[in-house]
UniProtKB/TrEMBL annotation:
It comes from Kribbella flavida (strain DSM 17836 / JCM 10339 / NBRC 14399). Keywords: DNA damage, DNA repair, DNA-binding, Glycosidase, Hydrolase, Lyase, Metal-binding, Multifunctional enzyme, Zinc, Zinc-finger. Residues 4-121 form the Formamidopyrimidine-DNA glycosylase catalytic domain. CDD domains: BaFpgNei_N_1. This is DNA-formamidopyrimidine glycosylase. PANTHER family: FORMAMIDOPYRIMIDINE-DNA GLYCOSYLASE. Its EC number is 3.2.2.23. The keyword DNA repair applies.
Length: 287
């Protein structure tokens, strides 16, 4: 279901806080060299340190151990697999989906895995999270935004489409392709509506939809094991990834607009006054 977004990463952070805080790192191995984006400090600097906290920054997971941060961006095909009894056998580089293995002092730990051939999973070992370019560029977190600040962001975005504003990490952190579709469906707004074209009432509706959609998803994921978060995300989505299915609100068919590397889903009855949006990829073919 694409890149883990704010609710899944928030839940992973909570999952790890319960299990890893107070434990010492006894092994930390990188097996996919392409995944490690930093070299100083080395990943071995984590060994012997106690984990103090686990946080989320946008879609980044931040495991802090006595001033050293292991920062993870799972990308589209990455995941964190927790084991109560972690294997201590060194993983052979280049073999299988494991990119990184961490073992803690109670023999628990986790593997970072990545499926497929596009290797985008990223691991950073830093003393300051601002050294991670993706974190340094992040906009405010949705949960820290007031309605007034949100309105100012949309006004400043001008004619940029709502879908693009919601998923731009430098504007608002943590919302991606899936939850931007969900928020716009709850708000009953077209993904192509210009951001600065909203009335005060529409601004309030969209702000409330953003807060409630994300909080509901976080609440649904609370307490779930790491391996169950992806299926929970999928089961909770109303329109995203549901092309051809019935809209749960009005019963119309969920439609799709395709782009070069992604697609969006929406309900024409709920969001666009019944008018199907032009499929950009299809219209290019017809020219």
């Amino acid at each position: 279901m694409g890149v883990p977004e704010l609710p899944e990463v928030e839940s992973l952070a909570g999952f790890l806080r319960e299990r890893a805080v107070g434990r010492a790192v006894v092994r930390a191995d990188i097996t996919a060299i392409s995944a490690l984006k930093t070299y100083d400090p080395p990943i071995s600097a984590l060994v012997g340190l106690l984990i103090d906290d686990v946080r989320r920054h946008g879609k980044f997971l931040d495991i802090e151990a006595q001033g050293v941060h292991l920062v993870i961006h799972l990308a589209r095909a990455g995941w964190l697999r927790w084991r109560e009894q972690q294997s201590t056998t060194p993983v052979r580089p280049g073999k299988g989906p494991i990119a990184c293995r961490v073992v803690l002092d109670d023999e628990s730990g986790f593997d970072l895995t990545e499926a497929g051939t596009q290797k985008k999973l990223a691991v950073y070992v830093v003393r300051d999270v601002a050294e991670v370019p993706g974190i340094a560029r992040l906009g405010p977190d949705p949960f820290t935004l007031s309605a007034e600040d949100f309105g100012a962001i949309l006004h400043e975005a001008g004619r940029v489409q709502l879908k693009g504003v919601l998923r731009n990490q430098s504007v608002i952190a943590g919302i991606g392709n899936a939850y931007s579709d969900e928020i716009l469906h709850v708000a009953r707004m077209s993904p192509f509506k210009p951001a600065s074209n909203l009335s005060d009432d529409e601004l309030h509706v969209l702000y409330t939809a953003m807060q409630e959609t994300l909080r509901d998803a976080v609440d649904r994921s609370k307490g779930l094991a790491a391996q169950d978060l992806k299926s929970e995300k999928k089961s909770g989505l109303r329109v995203h990834g549901r092309k051809g299915e019935k809209c749960p609100v009005c019963g119309d068919v969920v439609r799709e607009v395709s782009f070069a590397d992604s697609s969006l889903q929406y309900c024409a009855t709920c969001q666009t006054g019944g008018k199907p949006l032009a499929d950009r990829r299809l219209s290019k073919l017809l020219k």
